[in-house]
Design goal:
4 strands, elongated, 44% helix, 22% strand, alpha+beta, 4-stranded mixed β-sheet
């Protein structure tokens, strides 16, 4: 085995599940700026979104995700993008028409001179 392969700065760290507030006190080398007091002792705190206490595989509960809301958001973004594209096309047509009118007016003033 290679020597000095693993870090030596293990310390007690608290991992907290954001879903249900469950905390786990374990040893880790993770760096964090937050801290928490457990049993009168201050520990570094790492917040995580999901742990074994809230994961559906381990808890046996099925969670329904907001699929409809995601689809609605996607459709709204799609419609907004479509409207923005149409507005850009209309603006480009207007600019082209203005440039053509300006050129035609310049030709008329040139012919009258």
């Amino acid at each position: 085995m290679k020597k000095d392969l693993h870090p030596k700065n293990y310390r007690p760290v608290v991992f907290q599940d954001l879903n249900n507030g469950v905390t786990y006190l374990t040893r880790s080398t993770v760096a964090t700026k937050e801290s928490i007091v457990l049993d009168g002792i201050e520990y570094p705190l790492v917040t995580v979104h999901i742990t074994g206490s809230s994961h559906p595989f381990y808890t046996g509960e099925e969670r329904v995700l907001d699929i409809e809301g995601r689809v609605d958001k996607f459709k709204a973004r799609s419609e907004a993008a479509k409207a923005a594209k149409e507005a850009r096309i209309a603006s480009a047509k207007k600019q082209k028409a203005r440039a053509a009118a300006k050129a035609a007016k310049a030709d008329q003033t040139k012919d009258t001179e």
